[in-house]
# Entry
Amino acid sequence: MGLMERISRTEYVRSAIADKADLSAFKARPSLRVKLGIAIVLFSYVIGWPAVAVLGYLSVALDNAWLIAIGGPLVYGFSHLVFLLGIYLSGYDYTKIFLRWAARVVVEKWMQNHPDKP
# Structure
């Protein structure tokens, strides 16, 4: 039994096909959680490279290389964690919807090309 055949037999894929999983949920108005996640992602961009650039400028102006050597990676690492939080908040629901739809579409396409398979 091949990989696609095993995947097509999973409960996840079978329920996605039975429910005719689609992308209609993307037409709905975003929830507060999604809006908050997007705001956090945007904030992460503000504290990412611009903050590192300011640290670089201050490092040169104050003639202190340690400021950018230590502060740059710390600030950038923090902004990355903030970005991941925003992605988690804004993308969680939509990711589930998209993956169910993609599973259904891929397996149905495979089943069209392999009618002898389940």
